[in-house]
Amino acid sequence: MSGGANARSRVFEALQCACSQDPSVLKVGEQQLKAWEKEPGFYTALSFVIGERGLDPSVRWMAITYIKNGVERYWRPGAPNGITEEEKAVVRTTLLQCIEEPVQQVSSQLAVLVARIARLDCPENWSELIPLLTKGVQSSNSLLQKCSLGTMKHVVKSLATRRLMPQRKAFFEITQSLFVYLAKLWTSYLQESLAGLGKEGFELALAPLELSRTCLKIVRQMMVYGFPKFHGVLEALQFLHQVLDRVPVFLELRSQLSQEHATANSLEKNITLMMKTLQEVQSHHPIGYVSFLTPTLQLVYTTIVEPRDEGQLYERFIIQAMNLLKQIIKCEDYNLPTSLQLSESVPPPQVMDAQQAKLAFFKASTCQTILQRLVCHYMPLSQQELQNWEDDAEEFAQEKTGEVHQYSLRVCVETMYVCLLHEYQQTLTPTVLTLIRNVQAVDASAEFDSLRLKEAVYKAAGLGAFQLYDDIDFDSWYQRQLLAELQVNESRYKIVRHRVVWLIGNWATVKLSPSLLTSIYFNLLAVLRPQEDLVIRLTAADSLRLVIDDFEFSAEEFSPYLADCVQLLVQLLCTVSQPDTKLRVLTVLSILMERMESHIQPHIPTLLQCLPSLWETSTQENSSLLRIGVLNTLTNIVRGLGPLSIQLHEFVLPVVHLATDVNTPEHVYLMEEGLDL
Questions:
Q1: CB-CB contact of 431 with 371 (8 Å)
Q2: In this predicted structure, what is the pLDDT of residue 188?
């Protein structure tokens, strides 16, 4: 493609077609642009289209998208059909002239494009980028300042991800040149926003709050990745002190506004970013964070453990505060190395300071207060959770695992509790035992809040099973208390019964006399029956899985219960509707078939009531995990039946064919299990 106005006109027309709502016109435009993407001059023409502000913003946005795609494929040195250095220089120069962009959608995309090129070229081949953005940030032109700051945010984030040492050194130099100015700019925007918050309406604070948040995003990247030794940089330490000091101020300001207020939402975003800054600096520079341990721990304690004003708290902040507290407790850099503990060597002074800070804060009374707050305030089921139980039992009963603690308050509270109990087991075990004793007398006639507390305490007892192993006589507790509670049919009491069923599963694999297993089998099957609440039935299936999958499990002892168990699990499988829940129940059946393989022949007709329809359903819903679950269950059945499995061939052989047919897309997920079958 030759350069000049003619090339720009042709590219513009193709971009217009690519933005058309008419599929046939759109296809023509996309084909033409695809044909040009390797042509010299194509990206120059695109960059000129971006700079023409009089054109349709959607066309300019599309031009940015095509340059982004070209950067990914053809910008790197040595790339096949790569863009020439001369054309790259023209594109870079043109993009810098477009930074001041009034259309938000175009400005955002343009910032991302500049950052992608910067990751490859800055500062070696694009030395003017950072100075020009800095000049724009310092400008009195509000639009140029906002656009330059937004672009710098993306550029700094992109440069921070580079890991080669020369690239890291370049980022260190950029940080050194910009950090102090950006830190002062953040402070200036905050002061402006606080002044606006002091006036009627609060709307004056919105713009500086947004700019301060953008500024903090840049500074956060620099604090985490821009200093080779964070603890030796006075300006960074001073800035982090400011962040810590601002969190309670913004929490108080937010509590003065209704949740729907736009300024309240902006304040929340700023608080979230401040807490994220504290978390990331502590995670990446734990030694440099030592001097902030005491104020951080005090901040967390005074806001979520003993808050002066409950109205200041909201879920996202509580999650972040708990995760920060957990990070500090679990941080290995604050522990004395084993080699030092076993010798007379002097540990690093920062480690000793961290030890002293944690010892001074985590006194017995403080740990007990935190644990009681977790169990008695945060763990009880909320009204929203109780409503979710009634509205969607399957969703309520879903197990949440993985990184959910970063987003789910309940999972965050539970992981925080386990972490605290593990770290301070001797101090906190008596507190947990006292809580358990205090709720034993709560029965179905008690206030509902008392039932919610009892459920929470039982949850704490189950989560801490490994830490409480030597201090709770679960056999006695089960026989004297829990067994009777399973028999209570009062509807209000179902939250406690549900937790008792869960508790049995948690403790059965930790500490349970073999003599009680028959009672456990009988009572878990009793709450699996169709007349029971669905959440309780699903929890009973989970507990049964844990009991069956235990290494002390005896197939002979369980054989009298096998028929009922298979029947009840099949009924439950036919009752639930969500693929994840079906897979959950199917997993229990699969494990049961594996552990009872020599006893399953009489129960094949019952199993065949559901497996063919389940396979068909999984195919219709395109649920690969569910199909894998069916394959695993069939494998365990065939293994148990041996030569008698020929009776299943009418169903099994087509399943094997589908799972192992390389001409179908499903084989990618199903091949391994299909070959096992």
A1: yes
A2: 94
